[in-house]
Amino acid sequence: MNIRRASSLDFPSPARRCLASSLEVQTIGLGINGKVGFGYAVELVKKSVLGLRILLVAAFSTVFLSPIVGSPLKPAETSTVRKLEFPPDHAIGGLLLVPAVNAAGKNAWSNAKEIAIAQGSVSVPVPKDKALMLELNLYAWQHPECLRQVSPSGIDSLKASFRMMDDDNKLNCDKVLEFIPYLKGIAFLDLESSDATDAGLANVKSMKNLKVIYLTGCPVHGNCLKEFCSLPELMRLIFVANPLEMTSLKYLGRMQKLTELKLDNVKLNEDGVKSIAECHTLQKLWVPHNTAVSDKCVPYLRSLKNLRTLDLRRTSISVRGVKSLASLEIRDLWLPRSEYSSDDMASLNRAFPNTHLYTDKGHPNNVDDSTKALLAPLTLLPELINL
Questions:
Q1: Cα gap 121→132, rounded to integer Å
Q2: Labelling 84: which of 30, 48, 54, 114 has CA 20 to 30 A away?
Q3: In the chain, pLDDT over 90 holds for what percent of residues?
């Protein structure tokens, strides 16, 4: 359904002056011929002021009568219909529309809704500003070989986040990763909270369209970075709470298109930052919750001339160290501490006159009222335990 707000330019004089000042009309396109409804009514307006009445009648009929007639909905002109094949006997997950692969972050995915079941023959209209994601279900984890029956192109993103809680090791992400390369069109791979390892991730080196990899919470040590060097389009890497070995970061400098890197709570130290400094294409760098990142790391950060976003939350860099980064053209900077004195903030603002400065709003001493209300029942736990 296409909804457009009519402007005064849609109506000729004298109706234009009348309608532009007193009337706002929304037209809903439901496959109605352009000569019926508004199109026809506008021609009548040219002939007589009485056409205004006819225009309103036409608007009423277009809005309220079209659904009754049952005209078929058509995909938006900005959408393309993708025809995909999946295993005919079992659903292997759901299909979702998510922000385009080049969009920053995953926050917008929280409102993504399943639009189709991944089973049999499926036709899905995909807007140009969206990407089509396949989220695997338990059956796909149990039978990863079923991915061979999926259309090799037409799916932009793959989400495989399933951590086996049992000890029998019958299900693991590495087995799924053996078959993921059959989906040659994948540009976004989300393995958040899975048990993917470096050995399993070696399978993705043949996925030449891969641009983004999320590895939050995965037990990877970083050997996979050597394999990632063979991905010519890789632009964003996300690591959070991974047991990374700092020596593995030496491969980052070989990734020619890497512009966004997140290393959150990975025990990053000076040696690691020194390796990051070899990645001159970086535009966005997040290194929060790494207390070993100190003023000794600042000279390496200062060598990243293309950096526009930098997150230093919960690092040990001093105010003086932060100010020494002022030579960079940073647009968004998250400061190491959650609170600063008024004098310190004033000096930082002077050092970065064209930069948005942020502090960590999630500090325990700065919990907002809604969070306090949400967590209030937990404060009763000690009393309940002692009952």
A1: 15
A2: 30
A3: 65
Question: Where do the H-state alpha helices sit in the chain?
Answer: 15-22, 38-47, 51-60, 66-69, 138-142, 173-177, 198-201, 224-228, 270-276, 298-302, 319-323, 342-351, 369-375, 381-385
Q: How far is CA 217 from the centre of its chain?
A: 17
* pLDDT for 113: 83
Q: Are 45 and 25 in contact (CB under 8 A)?
A: no
The span from the CA of 245 to the CA of 315, in Å, is 19
Q: Which of 58-72, 135-149, 220-234, 336-350 has the lowest mean pLDDT?
A: 58-72
Residue-wise pLDDT tens digits, 137-167: 999 999 999 999 999 999 999 999 876 555 5
User: Quick count: other Cβ atoms within 10 Å of Cβ 134?
Assistant: 26
Nearest CA to 99 out of 87, 91, 107 is that of 107
Gap between the Cα atoms of 164 and 170, Å rounded: 8
What sections of 120-217 are H helices per DSSP? 138-142, 173-177, 198-201
H or E element in which residue 82 lies: strand 79-85
The residue type at 71: S
Predicted structure pTM score: 0.73
Q: Are 243 and 221 in contact (CB under 8 A)?
A: yes
- Dist. CA 182–CA 179, nearest whole Å: 6
